[in-house]
Specification:
Elements: H1 2-10, E1 14-18, E2 22-27, E3 31-37, E4 40-43, H2 58-66, E5 71-74, H3 85-100, E6 109-114, H4 120-132, E7 137-142, H5 143-150, E8 161-166, E9 171-177, E10 180-187, H6 191-206, E11 208-209, H7 212-222, E12 233-240, E13 246-252, H8 253-259, H9 261-277, H10 280-289, E14 291-294, H11 303-311, E15 315-317, H12 324-334, H13 336-339
Helix pairs in contact: 3-4, 5-12, 6-7, 9-11
Length: 349
């Protein structure tokens, strides 16, 4: 409607990627304006959000380093399900308010991308949280659709598109056509599980306890899903499980590749399972169109090649995979009048 467009000119309409690891906000004409960890600091042993809801995102992460013991970090969406509604609401409220600022003239319209595995009750909770945070209108968009839009796939056309969005807690695999999801699967194996696999490997092989952040660093620095280039190595520091003392050891990329086999295989299986369930006509389209990878986990070296080998299809890595979903929500917002009727999964006021 023309008046919606007029109102849009006076409000900070935003697209939000509510991820298991990171929350991103994109605003029309400004691109990504917020990119913070989906983390909330709470009093240890409670669900009590610190400082009246101000200890969220980077602030929460920073506080953790400085005040160990009494404070813990909670990732309310860690496994793609909402573990605590209040904490999720505090997080969403903090991010929305941070973007709109105090001096907002008009309440914003908000598009939120949510993992496709979450339940109707959880969807409702996210929706209500956004309304309470001051949204004028709220639309929920399934993450694979947001990712497809962000990656520039022809998701609304009568041809099949396939997206594999590998985040921190979940991997979403979807085949879409005519602006709708034909087949999808959300599995709870993604980037976090790769980190855990590395922790387990270091324990088993070197009797070395390492932290989650160290494991993630190893993954990003030398991790791979299939051999790429020359093997490299790095020093890893941790605590010896026998002596209890700090120690360092050298590990190679070949070892880490071995350590990552299990989560990588689980992700590949989700992809092939989804393909097996596709209608023949859609499967036929995919021979031409191939598979698009998005999400931070898709940045693991050699992963596109592994998916290509397992499926025989062309595999492309989305441009800037970490911001793909957020950019998709912003594009959706721009075209909302055109798309909102076709995308019936939206909950709308
Ligand atoms: P979510 O959408 O669930 O919040 P993201 O798409 O933000 O997740 O991706 C976060 C995941 O991506 C984390 O597990 C992180 O370790 C992983 N990641 C980020 N960069 C890389 C990289 N270069 N190589 C491998 N994994 C990466
Ligand atoms: Mg994501």
């Amino acid at each position: 409607m023309w008046y919606e467009r007029l109102l849009g000119a006076f409000s900070v309409d935003m697209g939000i990627d509510l991820g298991t690891c990171n929350t991103l906000v994109a605003v029309r004409g400004q691109g990504i304006v917020l990119n913070e960890p989906s983390v909330v600091a709470v009093k240890k042993g409670t669900n009590q959000v610190l400082k009246g809801g101000q200890a969220v995102g980077w602030v929460a992460k920073e506080m953790l380093g400085k005040t160990p013991g009494s404070i813990t970090a909670v990732r309310p969406l860690k496994d793609g399900v909402i573990s605590d509604f209040e904490i999720t609401e505090a997080m969403l409220n903090y991010f929305i308010t941070k973007v709109t600022g105090r001096a907002r003239f008009l309440a914003p319209r908000v598009v939120i991308s949510i993992p496709s595995g979450i339940t109707a009750v959880e969807k409702r909770a996210v929706f209500d949280s956004a309304e309470r945070a001051g949204a004028r209108r709220t639309y929920l968009l399934e993450e694979p659709i947001a990712a497809a839009i962000g990656a520039g796939l022809p998701f609304a056309e009568p041809t099949a598109s396939m997206i594999v969005d590998i985040g921190g807690g979940t991997t979403e695999v979807a085949i879409m056509t005519l602006a709708d999801i034909a087949t999808c699967e959300s599995v709870r194996v993604a980037g976090d599980d790769m980190d855990e696999a590395i922790i387990g490997y270091m324990k088993r092989t070197y009797n070395l306890m390492i932290g989650e952040q160290t494991a993630e660093r190893i993954k990003i620095q030398i991790g791979s899903a299939s051999p790429v280039g020359e093997d490299t190595s790095m020093d890893v520091r941790g605590r010896d499980m026998v002596s209890g003392l700090p120690r360092k050891t050298e590990i190679t990329s070949a070892e880490i590749r071995e350590a990552l086999q299990e989560p990588v295989a689980a992700i590949i299986e989700a992809v092939t399972r989804t393909l097996e369930r596709a209608e023949p006509e859609l499967a036929a389209d995919l021979v031409e169109n191939g598979i698009m990878l998005a999400g931070g986990g898709s940045l693991l070296r050699g992963l596109p090649a592994r998916v290509q080998k397992a499926t025989g299809l062309d595999v492309t890595l989305a441009e800037d995979p970490l911001t793909c979903v957020a950019r998709g929500t912003a594009i959706y917002l721009e075209n909302i009048e055109m798309w909102k009727d076709t995308l019936e999964n939206n909950l709308e006021t």
